[in-house]
Protein 1
Amino acid sequence: MKTLLFNLPLFADVTKIANDDYVGFTFFVGCMAMMAASAFFFLSMNDFDKKWKTSILVSGLITFIAAVHYWYMRDYWGSVGESPTFFRYVDWVLTVPLMCVEFYLILKVAGAKKSLMWKLIGLSVVMLVTGYLGEAVYRDQAWLWGLISGIAYFVIVYEIWLGSAKKLAVEAGGAILKAHKMLCWFVLVGWAIYPIGYMAGTPGWYDGIFDGLAMDVVYNIGDAINKIGFGLVVYSAAVAARAKA
Ligand SMILES: *C/C=C(C)/C=C/C=C(C)/C=C/C1=C(C)CCCC1(C)C
């Protein structure tokens, strides 16, 4: 039993993080931040009525899924010393669709249909699967897969900023419109960090732009801003809605 436990990744030996290992450091701190955020969302969700409870639960699930993946990525980086691309994309393919669900849940009061949710989820999956193909499988065609991924990203941006999602948000007004707008900014600015990471990680492109700052550092900063920040926007909207009620 003891050997079994100690062979689980949870009890694996801790690897040293060098002073200049920014990737290792941001994986470590990122993991802690995601855990703390999850505890916060899970513990506060019961302070709200049913509608907002679900939204805050989803915020917590997003950071919790990320915390588990960060635990593995931190360990993988420490012991293998390579970018944990596979874990990274599994994390994204679970958490980004949940962010799409978040848009839908917020707009549900204004009559958002499930089809909007599935459309956003479908686009996000296309964006991530093609990104994975360019980053891990067809490295020589990184531009082609990056382009397809970028198009899917732009369609998402269009849909929430100008498309039917926007219309619903305007109809709802108040805290809903405010939260929707903030989340839109996250997608436009916060998510734009990722294609920069992709370009910085593709050999022969911009691998020198940040003075050699690794792609993983860019992705880790992006994740902290987007997953925790996104959840906090939803939390604030719930607080605002409660104050009015
Ligand atoms: C929590 C994780 C999030 C919010 C991840 C978002 C990821 C993206 C928006 C990735 C986008 C990409 C492109 C737009 C083009 C290049 C390939 C990707 C997958 C890095």
Note: The chain has ten helices and no strands.
Protein 2
Amino acid sequence: MSRSEELYKKAKHIFPGGVSSPVRAFGAVGGTPPFIDRGDGARIWDVDQNDYIDFVLSYGPHILGHNDPDVLSLACDVARKGLSFGAPTEIELQLGEMIVSAFPCIERLRFVNSGTEATMSAIRLARAFTGRVKILKFEGAYHGHADSLLVKAGSGGATFGVPDSEGVPDAIARETLTLPYNDAQAVRDLFDREGDSIACAIVEPVSGNMGVVVSDDEFLREVRTQTERHGALLIADEIMTGFRQTYGGVQILLGLEPDLTTLGKIIGGGLPVGAYGGTGDIMKKIAPEGPVYQAGTLSGNPVAMASGVATLRKLKTPATYSILEEKSRKLADGISGAGRAYGLPLRINRMGSMMTLFFSENPVTDWSSARKADTALFRHFFQEALKEGLYLPPSQFEAFFLSTRHDDAIVSEATEKFQRSLARTRDWIDRGRPESRP
Ligand SMILES: *Cc1c(COP(=O)(O)O)cnc(C)c1O
């Protein structure tokens, strides 16, 4: 028995599913999740000393790879002065100023501890600001696990075929309206019918939680136009896309001007952080200035703020995003070339350094097309990739990422590993897709 298998057996007694977050349990792909011991740059090592090229990157935060020396150095300096005070700190102001200057649509913000808290609080704020109750989200979009948002919520639930969670009262779920992603006509129709009772629409400007699905212009424009026309707020959930596609939000690249934006992942550089922000007239409703209560013992934690500050500083170098784009395109080209060569139904949805390999005959543009993907084929491919030393998210419906530490040599090495994994996936099809051992 490997050390990971040993630990996993024990962990299953202590934690539901042996994990602290569901997708990590490998339920959709089978086998034992490797227990990770350490990471450096683009690589991670498990407790059995297997090494992997990491494309999970903690589900997005590590855009600078693991153990960036500048991030570690600032975080450690700040940590040595005390881990938390429950009082204002200068480093929190510094990160706040950096975010405000990177986002034309954020004038003021509030730090929280996770993405879930950010979206949950932004929705409470939107409801208070408009005096309305209903919210609109899109099918397959994940905005964290708050009750109102666990409706048709993509990857986690999707992976296990549980669309909604038990324990969410019908009375709450009923106030969440859902529409297909990328369907501008459906947005028009809904707002025509009941736009005046909608507090807000929340949207991932590029979806990452049904796998990567890029939005089309007309769809985003319609969401903005209709919310504005009917006095509803637009919340751009940029927890995954913030600082992933450009310095600031992907909203800048897409010309989207939301009322509120939610952030997380990269702005904490690998430590727990979330934030929500927007125009001053809306944000002044937050306590203690206004009547919308929202608080946090560890919010704005100085060590997490330092990790964020050092990360953003480093990302600000002009060529960061063009280099990431170039390496990501190279990798995607290499993978899709192999997909064609082996006659696999492979579609790569990509925006910048986030992408998903869908095993699908048809283009994936929304949740209903995403869920038609061949998950058995993905499962087999995933196991081949893991054996090759590629650490990918263990679900067809997740995005994977590159970091600035995925240099040309690593991208070439990874491309060959992807190619061999795809070749063996082809063999498996040719052998009649035999059931693989667990
Ligand atoms: C990760 C993510 C969340 C949830 O963030 P947590 O920190 O896991 O609570 C919300 N929305 C989007 C778009 C995300 O990618």
Note: The radius of gyration is 21 Å.
Protein 3
Amino acid sequence: MRLNRPYLITRSLCPENMESPIRFLRGPVTPTEYFYRRNHFTYPDLSAQSYQVHIDGLVNRPRTFTFEEIRSLKSREVTTVLECAGNRRNYFRPRVYGERWEDGALSQGVWQGVFLGTLLAAVGMQDNVREIVFTGWDHGESNNVPGQYHFQRSLPLNAALDPDTIIAHSYNGLSIPVKHGHPLRLIVPKWYAMASVKWLKQITAIGDSFGGPFQTVDYNYYPDPVTDVGKYPVTTMHVNSVIQYPLDYSVLRLGIHQVEGIAWTGKGMITKVEVSLDNGMTWSEAFLKQSTSRYSWREWLFPWEVSEVGTYTIIVRARDSSGRIQPFVPMWNRMGYGYNGMSKVHVKILI
Ligand SMILES: Nc1nc2c(c(=O)[nH]1)N[C@H]1C(S)=C(S)[C@@H](COP(=O)(O)O)O[C@H]1N2
Ligand SMILES: [Mo]
């Protein structure tokens, strides 16, 4: 008999939004078949043109690079978590509208490509550049602003020039899968994944701040339920974690159970993961496995010895080297971004 294998979880078919079976994945690399899929539009049709990316705007020598040219340049590898800003949205109370992600709008693997700064140096940026805008080949109606748009996002110059911001051409050693941005995709470690624009068509240097709908309407935190008071843009990932085992509301037996999961952050690295079995009164440190790279999640485990039958709630929180810690209740915001409340599972223990 063959071993059972997990599946992606379907959230919507058109555009295709699928969740990774994150509780059933182990190890540092998410195989393509289990990588979550997050799309605003139907998939773009690939043609010969899709194998070219144009760099223009406030540059001295606007220029088209072909896929082959980019692939022949010196490349680097970046292993990173990609997490959708809407990951875990379904846990917000009061509930919010949007894709109903649980914990699996999250995956990671090894991207290979060229340092974006190399391409920008080749075209010569002018002094007044403030942001770089990235346009994907996909387009359609926006949910929140009337009109047709391409998926477009910008990065401030310092993030664009970070040595680990790359134009990727490979994932886990192979060409990027079509659904994940083939042939060329921007990869921006530390940022929520809306920044990592798939199917790159155009890169444009601008002298002010970009005003597209995926920059100034979506992907902003709106702390107020009705008005835009206090609105600010979504950028880097919060400190966060997921319990992979045991499953929520599972029934187990007395004995020792390995509570396990992953923790990640967009600022520094994970320094501690703690487990509480008494609603946060006391905490015990989980064992952190070696991190596999600077931007990857960290696996943790906690041997839990249970000697009494009953019902238990396991709560987990992670801390990072920037001094952040997961809150019991994260900041509510109207579009449901950046959920990082402590993970919690309920279990019943039988004899
Ligand atoms: N061109 C393009 N790039 C995109 C998107 C998109 O819809 N179109 N979605 C973004 C969002 S919100 C996320 S979370 C990630 C999802 O990447 P994946 O589908 O490879 O998991 O891609 C980002 N890049
Ligand atoms: Mo996303």
Note: The pocket of MTE (ligand 1) is lined by residues 35-40, 82, 84, 136, 138, 151, 180, 193-194, 196-199 (CB under 6 Å).
